[in-house]
UniProtKB/TrEMBL annotation:
The keyword DNA-binding applies. It holds the Pfam family LacI. One of its GO terms (molecular function) is DNA-binding transcription factor activity. Residues 1-53 form the HTH lacI-type domain. Residues 321-335 have a biased composition (Low complexity). The keyword Transcription regulation applies. Signal peptide: none annotated. The lineage of its organism: Bacteria, Bacillati, Actinomycetota, Actinomycetes, Micromonosporales. Keywords: DNA-binding, Transcription, Transcription regulation. This is DNA-binding LacI/PurR family transcriptional regulator. It comes from the Bacteria. PROSITE patterns: HTH_LACI_1, HTH_LACI_2. SUPFAM superfamilies: lambda repressor-like DNA-binding domains, Periplasmic binding protein-like I. It comes from Paractinoplanes abujensis. Residues 321-342 are annotated as: Disordered.
Amino acid sequence: MADVARRAGVSMATASRALSNHPHVAEETRARVLAAAEQLSYVISPEASRLAGGATDRVAVVVPHISRWFFATLLEGLESVLRDADLDVLLYHVGDAADRRDFFQRLPARRKVDAVVVLGMPIAGGERDRLESMGVHIVAAGGQVEHYPSVSIDDAAAGRQAVDHLLFLGHRRIGMIAAIDPIEPGWPAGPGRARAYHEALIEAGLPVEPGLVVTVPWGGLSGADAMAQLLSLREPPTAVYAHSDEVALGAMRTLRRTGLRIPEDISVVGIDDHPMAELADLTTVAQPVREQGVAAGKMVLSLLAGAAAPGAVVPTRLVVRGSTAPPGSSPARSAAPRRGRR
């Protein structure tokens, strides 16, 4: 507050009254004080005295989506660890660009926590500066964030497991439904999973045909539309690799509605092992989502205890179900027992 008062050219008492909206402050003076406070990222915090005395026993969690299975499962694992350690969770949902701007604009007011956990979202340069101005520990989960300790999968490796599986089965004309999050289009999951597709085809000596790649917003309905686009090609693919199970499930709906058989006519593989994947008999690359949240929680506890918390990349695994088979499989062949885990 002394810095604010100095910059505004007023006394500490006047600065305090202006910031607390006291009626006996001239509007011109109030505006000058508020401008100085904004420039210095200063806010009045009711927790100031508590912070001065030590830890708050609270952790802020920033998440772009709450209703999606992936983020809810991440949060469940994280919260279970923090709850067992008697730490409270303050949840901040930044659902769109306006929410995000507002959150980072008001970020100094969040100085009432011991740590911040960012779930499944990238942090831009200006946002990183605001976040680090809090002076607390920062952890990321559900995606690699190079500036902070983070826990994630290797998206490129997961993509290779999916595409290599189709190549192993003998597919040579493989389509890809790439998914982007409209809120977080730059999130690393998409580029990593797309890179895997291109690298796998090149290593197999196959051409990368732009027409076999369709990029859509993340979601099942988008996957259904993308599959219709692939089927409209003069020579449709014999197999499709989708960036997520939700997208793959949408693609399967389109295939069934057009009378095509899965996997006899076309194979489909996704990534994540969504709870619906097993019910739909979808071959997928499973990632341990809840475990990533648990690992992030343990990182927070280590940092609060003054210990190191190195980042972690958790392994994925191919889960073979009934949506993939060699190209042109007969019904009898595709019905043979071949399900299992690798």
